[in-house]
Amino acid sequence: MTRTTPPRPVDIAGLFPELRQHSATATRLHPRPGTPTAADSSIGGPLLWPAGEPWPVCPDGDDHYIFELRTPATVRRGREIYAVATARAAATGADYHLTDEEQAALPDIDFSEPDELVCQPIPLVPVAQLHRRDIPDFAGPDGTDLLQILWCPLDHPDEGYNPRVRLYWRRSAELSGPLSTPPEPPVVNESYLPVPCVVHPEQVREYQYGGLLPKDLDARITAWEQAGHSYQADLSLAPGWKVGGFANWSLTDPHPMDCAECGAAMTLLFTADSGEWHGADCSWRPVDEPESASPDPTDVSIGRGYALYVFRCPASFEHPPASTMQ
């Protein structure tokens, strides 16, 4: 099933033609729960990982910030229980509730696995696998056609209490004998274990965050907004998981994202979001979305419902990425 973003309520570039100089395309990924294979583009799905290449791990040990540790199996079992209860309520029209047996199968609300379980190499978890053939806004070194994004599923204080991200660009034709069963972390922050999702890529046009526009243009748009339209919410930046486009700086206001290696101003590569749309009346909700669809199909939560923006260096794909929560 495709996912189609509704036309914007207003042609903002028609009203402010200068905005065309501050625009870019973005690919909304529209992840939805499914059974992607290692050959597919996906969110949280299996990776086409070379069998002879060690799986990456995080060695930070007790430098992680520890909060409600869960095993991956516990997280998945809990999601299955909640899904069954949700489906039961929808089918019967009864109020949502858990049976005694379902409740007994869940950990107590304040339960956490032992802290010492983080004091070992923590295997990273797959976040995204993106094939150039599927992603109009794919960016990567010449000759590569596959981007794999992984992160440590625990909080890192030096990353703003977010997961630490790693990027791998590959040539898929060279990947023979892929790894069949990658290692799993002993414990995770359940907010950082994505539900395996297929993707439905769709390219959209975005316009730069208001605070980064020329001051005169931003002021004129702000004055026009008093007529009841919202540039930030409805006309400029798509929510949800996406490739390319612009970041929304509404949490902290803009701050420099410069390469730690060379100092170059970095470019937005990828967005992991806590929701695909925000609110029942959100203008970005796809027109073909079922009424019962969850706005958070990946079960990922960044902070208190924000997004994690991953930036790349425009000077070299070999330079390390940077991220920020907004």
Structure, explained:
This protein has 326 residues and is an alpha+beta fold. The protein has a single domain, classed as Hypothetical protein YwqG fold. Helix content is 14%, strand content 20%. The strands form four sheets. A six-stranded antiparallel beta sheet has the order 12-1-13-14-15-16, with no helix packed on it. The two termini are 30 Å apart. The model has no long low-confidence stretch (mean pLDDT 95).
Summary keywords:
single chain, 326 residues, alpha+beta, Hypothetical protein YwqG fold, six-stranded antiparallel β-sheet, 20% strand
Question: How is the secondary structure organized here?
Answer:
Blueprint: H1 12-15, E1 23-28, E2 32-33, E3 42-43, E4 57-58, E5 69-70, H2 72-92, H3 100-104, E6 122-123, E7 125-131, E8 146-151, E9 165-170, E10 188-189, E11 197-198, E12 202-207, H4 215-225, H5 231-236, E13 242-244, E14 267-273, E15 307-312, E16 322-325
Antiparallel strand pairs: 1-12, 1-13, 2-11, 3-7, 3-11, 4-6, 5-10, 7-8, 8-9, 13-14, 14-15, 15-16
How many helical elements? Answer: 5
Report the span from N to C terminus.
30 Å
CATH architecture, by name, is Roll
Order of helices and strands: HEEEEEHHEEEEEEEHHEEEE
Shape category: globular
CATH level-1 class: Mainly Beta
Strand content: 15-25%
Q: Estimate the helix proportion, in percent.
A: 10-25%
Brief overview:
The protein is an alpha+beta fold and 326 residues long. 14% of the residues lie in helices and 20% in strands. It has 5 helices and 16 strands.
